Amino acid sequence: MRCYTIQQNNSEPGIYITWNGNHTAGIEIGSNLLVEASGLLYENIIENQINKIDRISIQKKQDNWFLVKEQNKDQEEILIFIREKLFNVDNTTLIIKTKKDKKAPCPNRVKTINVTGTNRCPLCDVDLGVPIDDYPGNCKYLHPDNGIAYDYEKKNSSNFYASSKHFEIARGIHKIDVIDDEKDTVTIFEWLGKLSKGITYELNITGSSDIIYLHWSGKELDYWRNPKEGTTPIQITNKKNDILIEDPKFLEPSQDIIFTDEQKLVVHHDYGPALVFAVAGSGKTTCLVYRIERLVREGLFPPEKILVSSFNKMAVEEIHSKLRRWSCCQPVDVRTLHSLGLSILKKARLQKNIPLSYSYEDPEALKKKIVFEAIKIARGKNVYYGDILDNLDIDDFLSYVEKCKTNIDYADLNEANLPNQGLQQATQAKAPQNLPWYLDLYRLYEEVRKTNNWITYDDMLLEGWESLISYPEILNFFRQKYSCVLIDEFQDINKVQHAILDLLIDEHRNYMAIGDDDQTIYQWRGADPNYIIEFEKRYQAKKYILSLNFRSTATQVLLANEVIQHNKIRSKKTLHLYRTEKGLSQIIPAQNPQSMVNDIVDFFHKKFNEGLLSEDIVILVRLYSQTPIIESAFIKNDIDYQIIGNVPFYQRGEIRLFLDYLRIGLYELFISEKRNFEIDNAWNAWMNIYHQPPRYIKRKVARRIFEQVKEKQDTFSNTLKYHAPFTGNSREKVLNLAEHLEWLASNINNDEPSILLKNLDQKMKISQYLMNRYSRLEKKEEIQDEVRNFFDYCRDFKNVHELLEHFDTLAESQNIHKNSSRRVTIMSIHQAKGKEWDYVLIPHVNHGIIPFTGNEIFEEERRLFYVAVTRAKKFLNIYTIDSKKPSQFLSETDAEKLLQSFYRTESILSSDIQKASFEDLLTLLTHHQIKLYQKILAPWWNSLPTDWEKLFKRLTRLLTYLERIPLNMNISIPNIKRNLWFEIPQGQLYPEEIDIQEFPGIEKHINQEIQQKIKHCFLSEEWPPKKKVIHSNFGEGEVIMTYKGKTGNCYLDIYFPTHGQK
């Protein structure tokens, strides 16, 4: 470890700070520039004002070098990551020479790279940390939207590569080694980026920074912010042009991966509308970005004229990341559809001089702010639903607002002031059937928003659309701005997004939609699969299908196809297997839910002991109400877990409400018995229960009640009775609460917690109240399941005190993660969209959960199960419960038989065919799905170690035996021949003699009389098998076999269709 002291000048050895302007500071060791500081380190330098002497050291931690500041004896702060050995290199030069590219824009020219660092854009001089939408003009070239420099969580200006991120950034990045004439190797830089072909680069490495710019002749050619995944230089040579490194895996930009024929068609689509149906795991995003690169490289469209978008932010970030490898594609406009809508809106308002108050706070937080303002107005107007607003579920109401706006449903259509074109698509919003006042609150919500000129995520789209239809010059501007439009995840498009895109592409029709209608799982918030299904007809588009699944193994592909084909609203397509690796899919039945979770626990113990990492495995649930029983099993078995998209069940609002009632009941008992306890602990519980279910007690009254309980040491029930006469219309409800609390206190030590909770719910109708807060049927049923599972969980506790103590300690224990590599991830199927794991576990695959009966769109449930199945890369466990109704998705596909049949077929074909039994060969001969296997599972089929010639001969001989030997089993020879999946080999079909030993096991299906005939069977030239005959009594027939009787006479067995075998 080298230790230094920060100095203000370089009069003695140490680490020196040099000011470079533009919010950066250089850090030098002696005369060598070590690194240019920005972000947290720069802020630290400012805080210290270079007046305070800090102990600084360069330390190696886990094979990486860091600049570290000592804080005290036991603490140190990592200031910045230093690339290994960089400080030992000064002005080192190397040549990087790449393979020639005839299409390279500047072939055979030498370019010098000067490494510099800055926090400001060199083109427009804007601070790179501010939000992208505040940049002047159209300068987007080096801005945070194209990188990860902008800290989206903290929204601050210059957190480039903050210390907490450095270790993550350091993982797996490529290194470039300098090998000099003496063959000594020194790593000068751990990331450089992918270089263009046919160009020689001369590098003068003089330092490092958070941003690297590539300059040539005063022009900026490229830049890099962070490691670009999957890219390395092709060839590195020294000054003598000796090849030092060559990686043949990377070829020309559009040829560095091998495309399938289907993918090539997509990549090479030039002009006009195109629809790409891409099945799960088909590599659609890769096709998309390579098409963009080709369009730019071949000059079909200027990069700045190309718009690439998606509803899904994750999909946009993935596209952005993949396009970074090509500097020519940096000007391509890659953004979410919300961002597109906002850019349209801002352009319109700027041009029309309309004020726009756009807050940089979280737009989701802004929505809630608007709701709170609307509630204030509602109460001020004394609306009829004013008292209900205390218990408004804001998320549910905002979900209603979001769906209205995505469907172009206005709070007041008459006030919308839309042109005729808009009125043809817009509609008047309607309130949910059980929440009629939602529409009134929606109107107030819009009143607040418009008064303040606030824009939420939903308004970016709706008002963006309004701008296009209201201002022809704005529409014309954006039509001219984009000559080519590509939309990923098109199946998630909703009405307002579809309307915006339809307007933008109306003139040029260079419009490509990519998606999979079988993965439309967001209809509940406005997505409609018909937009992608009808795209081809609407735009007269060229249709492409990406059918190869690169992710899953054979059984997952087979099951997914069987599941999704039962949907009627879909474009017919089939997943085809790409991989040959052996995987496993299994349906695991359990007697009851507890047995199921025990199986899951055992599975995790086994796999973790085998060394499986948690990042390779996931549990996918349809509803978060499924998690309590799983979480409880994990807690009991000391298995660490995390839930993505929700909190642990014991922290959810509906569960906390029941627990808080128990707490207040316990306090009620303690007060009545004059026990000592800390009443302040009851505050949060009281403030949670006093208004749930609604009692219309004002908050200040609730505070007064609590203060009186605290001061007079009186019970809550007595205090409520005292205040009841002063609560107006709420008097009866207040007295009922007092009565319920008295009942709860008197029974809290008498009943088991689960029974007590059920009785409490029955008396106060808490779960009914919780369900009625939601407009969506799905959410109502989820709450019902959540509460039921919670009651079941409480069966394990003897008394309320033990139960509450358990829940009080749960949160604290779960926050202490034992081992992140063994932390189980649980998430919803919705959250899993676009992701993949080696192991996927799907519990509760029974009617009511999968499919969920609360979803009115049944086919969306089947799509959800399809998405879950196709997340698996290797292993899929589907858990069912015998005591519950089977899932339709498993019964209609006969999934158990489907998988068993596949595995038996695989086993037979992987064994010695000469030893195959009669049952094995008959299975193959009568297997009606083998043709399907050959078609959609071709890689698996072709990888089997089967001697096909021997197999076909044995199957052919068996077929001839079946034609000659009547078996006591139901076999239809015509059906077998009609569905035959192989060609019968040429040659003699009928053996001279029948030897039933040739097919072990066949004798069990032949009666004794026939077996005796078989012993004397022979092949007659005059009466060969299948010869047609006519009998005077029985009519037409076919010869089955010829045999000799005891007397030596010849006999024929003939099959007559009308009389059977004679």
Molecular structure report:
The chain has 37 helices and 37 strands. β15 (235-237) and β16 (243-246) form a beta hairpin. The strands form 10 sheets. Strands 4-3-2-1-5-6-7 form a 7-stranded mixed beta sheet. The relative contact order is 0.06. It folds into 8 domains: 14-83, no CATH class; 117-143, no CATH class; 177-246, no CATH class; 261-357 and 462-546, Rossmann fold (3-Layer(aba) Sandwich), CATH 3.40.50; 363-454, no CATH class; 583-640 and 820-893, 3-Layer(aba) Sandwich (Rossmann fold), CATH 3.40.50.300; 649-799, PCRA, domain 4, CATH 1.10.486.10; 900-1006, no CATH class. Mean pLDDT is 75; it is low at 1-17, 19-24, 34-55, 72-123 and 128-255. By secondary structure, the chain is α/β, with parallel strands linked by helices.
Mind sketching the topology for me?
Elements: E1 2-7, E2 15-21, E3 24-29, E4 32-37, H1 39-48, E5 55-61, E6 64-70, E7 76-82, E8 92-97, E9 110-114, H2 163-170, E10 176-179, E11 185-189, E12 200-205, E13 212-216, E14 219-224, E15 235-237, E16 243-246, H3 261-267, E17 274-278, H4 284-297, E18 306-310, H5 313-323, E19 333-336, H6 337-352, H7 363-380, H8 394-406, E20 409-410, H9 420-423, E21 427-428, H10 438-451, H11 457-470, H12 472-481, E22 484-487, H13 495-504, E23 511-515, H14 530-533, H15 535-539, E24 542-546, E25 548-549, H16 554-564, E26 576-577, E27 584-590, H17 593-609, E28 617-621, H18 627-636, E29 641-644, H19 653-672, H20 683-689, H21 699-712, H22 716-723, H23 731-747, H24 753-764, H25 766-772, H26 777-793, H27 800-815, E30 824-828, H28 829-832, E31 837-842, H29 858-869, E32 872-881, H30 888-891, H31 895-909, H32 918-926, H33 930-936, H34 938-942, H35 948-964, H36 973-978, H37 1008-1015, E33 1017-1018, E34 1028-1031, E35 1035-1044, E36 1050-1056, E37 1060-1061
Parallel strand pairs: 1-2, 9-12, 17-23, 17-24, 18-19, 18-22, 20-21, 22-23, 25-26, 27-32, 28-30, 28-31, 29-30, 31-32
Antiparallel strand pairs: 1-5, 2-3, 3-4, 5-6, 6-7, 8-12, 10-11, 13-14, 15-16, 33-35, 34-35, 35-36, 36-37
Helix pairs in contact: 3-4, 4-5, 6-11, 7-10, 8-11, 11-12, 11-13, 16-29, 16-31, 17-18, 19-20, 19-23, 21-22, 22-23, 25-26, 32-35
